[in-house]
Amino acid sequence: MTDSGKPEIAFPSRIGVWWASETWSITDAQDVAREIEALGYGSLFIPEVTGKECLTQSAAFLSATDRLVVGTGIANIHIRLPSAAETGGRTLNAQYPHRFVLGLGVSHAPLVEHGMGGTYAKPLATMRAYLDKMAAVSEVIEPGVPRPTRLLAALGPKMIELSGTHADGAHPYLVTPAQTQTTRDILGPDKWIVSEQAVAFGGTDEDQLQRAHQHLDVYSGLPNYRNSWLRQGFDESDLVRGGSDRLARGVVGMGSVEDAAASVTAHLDAGADHVVVQVLGDNPMADPRPALRELAKALPLG
């Protein structure tokens, strides 16, 4: 435990990376993780949508690096049993103490019901029940090893509250620094907040906006994010497919590389413990290294 009472996460830096590598071969993706570590970033958070299983990927990235923290951003609770999530997390924490973060989320109704053939109902109750079942797993599994730090994909106030009572904090995604501040106000000082910040720099303003709108295209059709943006002060006119220019500029850091870096550190100033930056390229799984090299020069990674 840290002095504040939070479970320990051995972040080498307060700024990390969020990257979707599902279409990459794992050996090539491990090379990316090694360079992310060498550049001074403190973490690599990976998603779980319809491609690779994220605990297996996490093990591969942890084994390929020495200090990098690896987190799931977010492991879909509809994909695995609570006991599998708990025991898998414990095993990774046993092998790589304080370097694995288990981020969990309820996903989205269209993905769960149409993409997976599952049932999406009462997300708050579903998550609470899932976490209770995880907590009930016997201590004979990896005896003497604490469970990894557990974060929830929490956007609404009730899920944020649950991330404080039943987990170790929140992993906000596609939020403004003001929402990071709101999350901190709800959770208080003794819970982790790892905020994600997308950035687009290089090229013209039009180029950057195009990348931002492309990034927001799928999310703008999902009720969870639409409701989140309305709570953050945007309105229905911003919720067009791909988002309005106002929404794009509000949740994606654009401009110069220094402007992009400032959008990342704004979350730290607002109360985040750690921020993971997602660089937007021509497609969601583009090689992030060229942009990360440039961005590293403008960020306080030491």
UniProtKB/TrEMBL annotation:
Pfam families: Bac_luciferase. InterPro entries: F420-G6PD/mer (IPR050564), Lucif-like_OxRdatse_MSMEG_4141 (IPR019922), Luciferase-like_dom (IPR011251), Luciferase-like_sf (IPR036661). Its EC number is 1.-.-.-. It comes from the Bacteria. Gene3D superfamilies: Luciferase-like domain (3.20.20.30). Residues 11-236 form the Luciferase-like domain. Keywords: Oxidoreductase. One of its GO terms (molecular function) is oxidoreductase activity. It is an enzyme of class 1 (oxidoreductase). This is LLM class F420-dependent oxidoreductase. It comes from Mycolicibacterium arseniciresistens. The lineage of its organism: Bacteria, Bacillati, Actinomycetota, Actinomycetes, Mycobacteriales.
